[in-house]
Amino acid sequence: xxxxxxxxxxxxxxxxxxxxxxxxxxxxxxxxxxxxxxxxxxxxxxxxxxxxxxxxxxxxxxxxxxxxxxxxxxxxxxxxxxxxxxxxxxxxxxxxxxxxxxxxxxxxxxxxxxxxxxxxxxxxxxxxxxxxxxxxxxxxxxxxxxxxxxxxxxxxxxxxxxxxxxxxxxxxxxxxxxxxxxxxxxxxxxxxxxxxxxxxxxxxxxxxxxxxxxxxxxxxxxxxxxxxxxxxxxxxxxxxxxxxxxxxxxxxxxxxxxxxxxxxxxxxxxxxxxxxxxxxxxxxxxxxxxxxxxxxxxxxxxxxxxxxx
Amino acid sequence: xxxxxxxxxxxxxxxxxxxxxxxxxxxxxxxxxxxxxxxxxxxxxxxxxxxxxxxxxxxxxxxxxxxxxxxxxxxxxxxxxxxxxxxxxxxxxxxxxxxxxxxxxxxxxxxxxxxxxxxxxxxxxxxxxxxxxxxxxxxxxxxxxxxxxxxxxxxxxxxxxxxxxxxxxxxxxxxxxxxxxxxxxxxxxxxxxxxxxxxxxxxxxxxxxxxxxxxxxxxxxxxxxxxxxxxxxxxxxxxxxxxxxxxxxxxxxxxxxxxxxxxxxxxxxxxxx
Lengths: 309, 273
Fold this sequence. Notes:
Chain A is mainly alpha-helical. Chain A has helices spanning about 5-10, 25-55, 70-75, 80-115, 120-130, 135-145, 150-160, 170-195, 200-210, 215-240, 245-250, 260-270, 275-309, and strands at about 55, 65.
C-alpha cells in the first residue's frame, strides 16, 4: 500500500539479522573497494584541500606549497566578492526551492486525476530533468537573445518592447526562472508519489465525516505530505545553493559579477585569477558550511524521531 | 469543465517547462536567412542543413569526438559506480556493515558541493597524468554517481527476503557466491535502472568536464559551450541549435524510454534513512 514508507523503514531498520553474525571481516572485504575508492578520490583531495588552504602556492610552485598560516582564509573573508557570492547562493537556493516546491506541489495535486490513468503523460513533464543544465543554460542564450530569441520577439509583437533579461538588475530573476523551470518537475515527482501514497481510507474517513475538498486537502493530505515537503525543500535548496552549470553557461559571473554563485566564485578564483590558496580556502569554508547544515538537519531529524517515539 | 482546466494546465506546464528544448529544436531546422527575419516558433522553410553541418567534421567542430568522449566517460562513470556500490550495498543491507559511518558519509555526499574536491582532484590528475583523459573524467563521474547507486541498491537488497540468502547458505554457498549468483539476478532491475540513471547523470555533468579536460577528452556538454564562445563574428544559431539537440538526444531518449524507472531513481535519494 505505502511503498515509500516501506523502503524508509527497511533502510532505517538496524535489527541485527542472524546473517550478521558472520565474521565482520567478510563484509568489510566486500565494502573495501568502495572505501578505497572514496579514500583516494575524496579523502586524499580533502587532505590536499586542508594543506593547500594553509599554504602560499602558485601554479608554478604547485608541487611545493609553503605553509603560511591562515592568510588565505583572511584573503577570502576580506573579499567582498566572496560575501556577495555567499549571498547570491543563499538567496538563489531559498527562492528556487520555494518556487519549485510550491509549483510542483500545486501541479501534483491538480494533475493527479489526469495522470493517474494515463501515466505516459508523465514523460513530457520529466523531460527537463533529462537535459544537461549546462545545455539548458546555452539554450536560454537563444531563447532570450534580443535578435533571434522567440521570447523578446513575441514580447515585442504583443507589447511593443522587451526587457533586457540578463543585465545587472534582471539577471538574478531570469536565472531564478531558468533554474525553477528545469527543476520543478523534480519536486513535482516527489509530491506526486507522496500524494498517491496517501491511504484511501484516510480520505474516505474524512469524506464520511463531511469534510469538504478544501478541508480534505489542508487537514488530511497536506499534513501527511509534510515530511516529503521538508525533504524536497532541502534537496532543492542544496542544489540551488551550489548552482554552477546553467548560470555559468548562460551568463558566467554576469555583469560586474552579480551572478557569481559560490561555485562560480571558487572556479574563477582558481582558473581565471590563479588565486589557488584563496580558491581552496573558500572551498574549505563552503565544506564547513555544508557540514554544519547537514549536522543541524540530522540533529533536527533525530529530535523529531525522539518526539515521535 | 474542471477536466478541461486540468488539460489546459498540463499543456501549459509541458510547454513552459520544455520551452528551451522546443525553441532549440525549432531553430535547428531554420536557415540562417530565415532566422534573422523570423525568430518565432514557426518554420517557413524547414532545412536539414544545420544537422548536415554538425555531422561534417571541420577543424572547428568535431561532434564525433565530443560524443565519443561523453560516451566513454559516462560508461565508466555508470559502470564503475555499480561495480563498487553493489558489493558494498550487500554488506550494508545484509551484514549491517557501515551503517554508522560509511552510509551516512556516502548519502550526505549528495548534499556536498562537489566543487570543493574539484581543485585538489585537478592537481592529483595533473601529477598522475589523468588530466584530459576519458578515464580520469569517468573516475570522477563515478564519484558523482555513487551516492544514489548505493542508496538504491541497499534499498533493493533490503527488500529481498532474507530466507533466500539462508536457503542458499544451507545449500553450502558462501557469501560471495550468494551475492553474485543469487542476489545479482534478483536485484537486476534495480541495477539496470541505476546504470541508466547513472549514465544520464554522467552524460549531463558539466563542471568536472570543464575543469578536467581541455582537448582530448572534452565531453559534449563542454564542447557545445566551446562552440558558443569560439565562434568569432557572432554565433551561427542554426548550427549551434543542432549541436545542442544532438548532444542532448542520448540522455533524453534514454530518459523518455525509461521514465517510470528513472522517476523512482531520481526520488530514491529523497527517502534515505
